[in-house]
Write a structure and sequence with these properties.
Domain BioF2-like acetyltransferase: 191-300
Strand content: 25-35%
Radius of gyration: 21 Å
Number of domains: 2
Distance between the termini: 39 Å
Number of strands: 15
Shape: globular
Order of helices and strands: EHHEEHEEHEHEEHHEHHEEEHHEHEEHH
Pfam families: Acetyltransf_6 (PF13480)
CATH superfamily of the largest domain: Gcn5-related N-acetyltransferase (GNAT)
Length: 374
């Protein structure tokens, strides 16, 4: 017999059982404990579990928040929606229950390793059913599935069969790193980009420091984080200091913060997760007064590529923004979709119409090209 349950803490699910559903995941049970402990404002965490005869067979992370419909809009579209929000406060905000996590690189449904692949569609259906039931208990009418990989046809089919509508999500950038040296990587890029990066590397650079503890510089790190967040085109959640320190403390050996010093001034930091399979760039923050002079973004990029090469790490996962630069830097992109359904049919129809104006690619040509390709 199949049963489902929703929990308010991931600690209600055994660590080994959760990780068995996500073999090889870098953002594993420990990562979600860090996120939960950080108590990020405006988010309530939920964890969905499917049991068969009392044995865990599938899990998924979920969250509750007030969602702004223009979260992934940038440029002229964002300026319009901000004016609209000022004139009519709350018009673009809806209570949302979503499978996935705003803190994770992808939305995966975890299936226990012993479960035959043929049974996955049934378990996906159960997870969606559990999410809708849990949302109903909270009085939330809008349910979504966040960042479904374009190649995951089973997830997409399960969402559509449950009556969910879809729209493009933000693609995730990935750089494959089969190179024997940074010079070989540069040789794979177009001539103009290669020439530009080599010129940047010849200029004096900052001093690098690899840290597993940043307590002594935490105020400076958060200053850089806040400044970078304020300049971002897309709207993101604000991470508290406990998220950064928690990752470094709990995920020892798998989390590191690279500091970039100009003299005694902390000019940038880069928080990364890493194992033998991938390096995930979680956040890069920098001081704009030093960014252009020291080419901090490109230096951090090449630092990460060099680390992958030195440690024979095949994948560099580099996030969901900066598409124009990442196209130049040789990235491939993994397409993603957002699926949604509102319990009220009229509102559901309106949201399906509004999505044409709030698509993330309408105001970013580079993003539009990437979404078109993926």
């Amino acid at each position: 017999m199949i049963t489902t349950q929703a929990f308010s803490t991931i600690r209600a699910i055994q660590r080994s059982a959760w990780n068995d559903c996500f073999p090889g995941a870098l953002e594993d049970w420990d990562y979600y404990v860090v996120v939960e402990n950080a108590a990020i404002a405006d988010f309530t965490w939920r964890y969905l579990a499917v049991y068969e005869d009392g044995t865990l067979v599938a899990v998924a992370a979920a969250f509750i928040t007030r969602y702004r419909l223009d979260t992934t809009v940038s440029g002229a579209g964002k300026r319009f929606t901000e004016r609209l929000e000022r004139l009519w406060p709350g018009v673009l905000q809806l209570p949302l229950y979503a499978i996935g996590s705003p803190m994770a690189e992808r939305c995966d449904a975890g299936i226990a390793s012993r479960v035959p692949p043929a049974r996955r569609p049934l378990l996906l259906k159960q997870l969606i059913k559990a999410a809708r039931q849990d949302a109903s208990e909270f009085g939330i009418s809008l349910v979504a599935v966040k960042d479904v990989a374009s190649q995951d046809s089973q997830w997409a089919a399960s969402c559509r069969s449950a009556g969910f509508k879809s729209m493009p999500g933000l693609p995730g950038g990935v750089l494959k790193v089969p190179y024997g040296s940074v010079d070989a990587y540069l040789g794979s890029l177009c001539k103009s980009t290669r020439k530009d990066l080599r010129r940047k590397l010849r200029a004096p650079g900052p001093r690098l420091e690899w840290r597993h503890n940043i307590d002594d510089v935490l105020p400076e790190v958060m200053r850089l984080y806040d400044a970078t967040l304020s300049r971002a085109d897309l709207q993101f959640e604000r991470l508290p200091a406990s998220y950064f320190t928690g990752l470094l403390e709990r995920m020892q050996g798998r989390a590191v913060c690279v500091l970039y010093w100009v003299g005694d001034h902390l000019a940038a930091f880069n928080l990364i997760l890493v194992d033998e399979h991938r390096l995930i760039d979680k956040f890069f923050g920098h001081d704009s007064a030093f960014g252009r002079e020291y080419n901090l973004y490109f230096r951090s990029w090449l630092t990460n590529v060099d680390y992958c090469i030195a440690h024979r790490i095949p994948l560099y996962e580099c996030g969901q923004e900066g598409y124009a630069s990442k196209l130049r830097l040789g990235c491939e992109f993994q397409g993603r979709h957002l699926f949604f359904r509102h319990r009220n049919r009229v509102v559901n129809v309106l949201l399906n119409l509004v999505k044409a104006f709030l698509r993330p690619d309408r105001s970013d040509p580079a993003m539009a090209a990437v979404i078109s390709e993926t």
